[in-house]
Amino acid sequence: MKKSILLVAIAFIAFSSVAVFAETNGSSNGGSSVTTTGQQGANSQKCTDVTGKVTLVTERYSQNKNKYMNAFQNMYENMNSLMLKLKSDGYDTTKLETDLSQFNNMIQNASRYYNAFEYGLDNSKKGVCGNSDADSGQEFTRAREQLSLCKNEMLNLRTFAEETLKLDLLALKDQVSE
Question: Is residue 103 part of a domain?
C-alpha cells in the first residue's frame, strides 16, 4: 500500500511538472497577449482616472473663473458707463478712460490665460489616453504655467481696481468740488 501511494505521488509530480513546463512554454509564446491586455487595461484605467480628475479640476476652476470674471466685467461696464456720463457732463475723464482701457485689456489677458490652461489640460488628458502625440507631462506643465499667469492677472486686476481706478474716481470727485 505504501508503494502504491508512493507511485501515485511520483506520477502526480511527473504530470504536474510536465503541465508546468507546457504552461511556461505557452506563456512565452502567447503570454505577451496577456501582458499587452494588462497594460491596455492599466492605460485604460489611467485614462479614466485622468479624465475624471481633469473634469473635476476644470469645473471647479471654471466656476471660480466665471464668478470673478463676471465681477470684473461688471465693474468695467459700470465704471465705463459712469465715465461716459461724467464725460458728457463736461468732466475731464482722460485718465479714467486710459485706465479703463488697460483694465479691460487685463480682463482679456486673464481670460486668454485661462483658455490656454483649459487647452493644455485637455491636451494632457489626450496624451495620457493615447489620442494625441503630445507629451502629457509637458502639456500639463504648460497648463499649470498658464493657470499661474491667470491667477496673477486676476490679482493684478483686483489691485489695479483698488489702487488705480479708485484714485481716478477720487480725482473726478475733486473736480466736482472745484
Answer: yes
Total tally of structural domains belonging to the chain = 1
pTM reported for the whole predicted model: 0.69
Phi/psi at 91 (nearest 5 deg)?
-80, 150
| Within-domain flag for 6 | no
For 17-37, what is each residue's pLDDT tens digit?
A: 444 444 444 444 444 444 445
Per the structure, the complete domain to which residue 135 belongs is given by: 46-177
Q: Determine the Cα–Cα distance for residues 132 and 19; give it in Å rounded to an integer.
A: 44
For residue 165, give the DSSP letter. Answer: I
Q: Say which residues have a Cβ less than 8 Å from residue 76's Cβ, sequence separation at least 6.
A: 100, 103, 104, 107
Outline where DSSP puts E strands in 56-142.
none
Quote the CA–CA distance of 50 and 17 in Å, as a whole number: 44
